[in-house]
Queue: 2 jobs
Job 1
Amino acid sequence: MNRKKSGEFDWIAQIRERFASSVPAGTVGIGDDGAVIPLGGGRSTIVTTDMLIEDVHFVRTAISPRDLGHKSLAVNLSDLAAMGAEPAASFLSFGLPGDVDEVWKDSFLSGYRELSSKFNVPLLGGDTTAAGKIVISVTALGTAPDERIKRRNGTRPGDVVCVTGPLGDSAGGLLLQSQTPENEDEKRLIAAHHRPKPYVREGVWLGKQPVVHAMMDVSDGIASDLVHILEESGVAARIELDRLPISNTLRRVAAAKDWDAEKLAVTGGEDYVLLLAVQLDAYNDLNQSYHSEFDTELFPIGEIVTGDPWIEWQRDGKLQNIDYKGFEHEI
Ligand code: ADP
Ligand code: MG
């Protein structure tokens, strides 16, 4: 049957519209990093779910099962962090082909267990089935006081746009993962792709700061992810390409391989850093407190401006005629 391909985001918009009237008042459904279900008494449960599919999200021969176990939970904890929520539990579902052996399964669980121990997130259930390829689906639950929940829709013109860590390392790792790494830099990029750091404590801390007006995590590249914040908030953004936090590691490897580091940083995705918008007059104080707490700074990359949901890319204060696109699954 011939079928016209469409994008993941159109499909999600279709589902959202179809089910909008079924969502009770006070509940947040489709459209943020997690759903928000009010518990009463000023607290809510936050729920998020993410799949990792063999040959779509990972290549079995390139990523170790232990790293894959880590990553499966990490990407979900990252979504909870993006909402400002404290993680409470996870559920792990598996589609497993017959050629996955016991050693692989054991190592996967070790990686998953290590991260769940680190952040005290018990695994409370899941589902298991036979499948043609490895399918992993994780659901994570968190909790937060209502006033600490960060959405994508709260930003205003004047806010500073910033991120909590480097952009593009994971995209570099994706390009390198099928070869034997030639040096420590290449190993570091591959590790960024295979073992992303979820900014759990940072997300909970940022949740407590009223001057953080919106937050999400970067899974598809800021060219795409920031637009979600802009759409939900009804504003535009001006991003300074010179200010992107591109690691020296990525710069060195990109120079050697003739890659465009800036493009990887903006469109690559899977960095799982937090992307947030902060009230301008509170930015310096917030950054100082963040530094005392985490011994690293926030990286400001631009500002929110009035206008249709659109990113103006600037260099040296001059508008650039570039149309960067983040990652979107074709379905
Ligand atoms: P993230 O990258 O933060 O995990 P996604 O881009 O996967 O977010 O999803 C964006 C929003 O769309 C989320 O609120 C998610 O729950 C929702 N969503 C995605 N796919 C579906 C689906 N098949 N049915 C219902 N909601 C979906
Ligand atoms: Mg997300």
Job 2
Amino acid sequence: MKAIHVLNGPNLNLLGTREPEIYGRTTLADVEQRLAQRASSREVELVFRQSNHEGDLVDWIQEAAKAGAGVVLNAGAYTHTSVALRDAIKGSGAQVVEVHLSNTHARERFRHHSHIAPVAIGTIQGFGVLSYDLAFDALCALGEANKKS
Ligand code: DQA
């Protein structure tokens, strides 16, 4: 995998101050910095983005798929509502790992369903900011495994 696009959905720009008892005190800029270090040590290009707008995420998923980049996607609340994001992944063939900071299954019932999960390679959630690291590593490992096979 030459490039990995890390796409963040609504309200993730508030990380650090938003419900810190659930999401912790790490900011999105900190997450980006951690992943930038990881990317440079693995010689992978990192694209890191956040938007509060569903259509931006649709465009970015399509863009990543076209570029043959892997995607780490934290779609935030759109995870539970967005058929458009699901269709973007399915329709473009994007290789997506779904991530969440919190364990959505241990939270309110409306967070238990994900439109992303059925079209993702897999889901990593509940590990705080470590969820991003694990998803990033999973995509790198898959890229290596695909090279060998
Ligand atoms: C989240 C979980 C979602 O249910 C919520 O709407 C978010 C953040 C997470 O990372 O834990 O915005 O995706």
